[in-house]
Amino acid sequence: MMTTDQPTRVTASGMTALGANIFEQAGAADGEAVAISANLVNSNLSGHDSHGVVRIPRYLMWEETGNLAFGQSASVIAEGGNFALIDGNRGFGQVVGREAVDIGIQKARENGVSVMALRNAGHLGRIGFWAERACDAGLVSVSFVNVAQSMLVAPFGAADRRVSTAPVTIGVVNPSGDDFILDFATSKVAEGKVMVALRGGKPVPDGALIDGDGKSTTDPIALYGEQTPGKEADPRAGAGALTTFGDHKGSGLALACELLAGALTGSGATGPGKKTHNGMFSVFLKPELLDDGHGFAASVKDYIDYVRSARPRDPEQPVMIPGDPERKARAERHANGFDIAAGAWNSILDAGEKLGLDRNVMIETATKR
User: Fold this and answer.
1) I need a labelling partner for 63 at 20 to 30 A (CA). Which of 7, 88, 319, 348 fits?
2) Please, are residues 146 and 118 in contact by the beta-carbon 8 Å criterion?
């Protein structure tokens, strides 16, 4: 059995092919397998390894336990000219999320503004991807997301878990330049970043985790509990919790996500349980609807340029806007490939082997340029 303790450099095309092969072997149709894998690889390329291919074994585990299902499409439960309530039917978020967001985009294109409420979707991946999709369509968007039955985060002042990582994304289209893409979990770090640390990647930053007594720690075991060889890590198993960013401010925003993306959509605010699914509440807006001649496009470009022109505190680190780090990472990683930490890489290979794929062939596929 070929294993390594060093990070493995893979290519985007090779890793997309390997991921698709694994999902096909697990039961996905060809187009669905490619969509899931390509979305995960896009997260790696964008510098968000926490939402990338490290999640392949967990997705397979969720599918095996009925938490996710291949072959599902989004169902429109209720709709009007500029709103839609959509059920993801526990389908993979890379598929049902795209279907739901595209409905919201189309309604905004036709009516100027739309509201889209999605419930019971599988993991939607890097949430900023959906803001990028809206910007590509020329729209402004705001999305709130929650993760029902995924209590991972302690609200401000608490030692117990009560909220999900509850991400938010805002996209402002810049017709003359780079779009503004704000994307963050309301926890200090996304759960996937702790999983990356657990698998031998970048350590968890100070203040992002507490143990079962509410004391600060950097040990991923606080979230996952002691690990059993061959068993996929479960973030519910630990006695500790993630913390929110910005103390009471991030905590308040997390609760808003639970109420908007969970309670309002019918997906459910988070609580005890194991049937994890995403809810998303989104607003899409055509800028022309509000531009009465004041020059929205020029104002966006001018202000972004003005912000970037500020003197950097570190001359080696230019001032960036949200979306710049992802664009920079994509340029570098498309050209050079990206690294997967040893633990995560071996976990992916193990998952493929369980499905009957040859380990050496998988390695050759993912690393081929």
Assistant:
1) 7
2) no
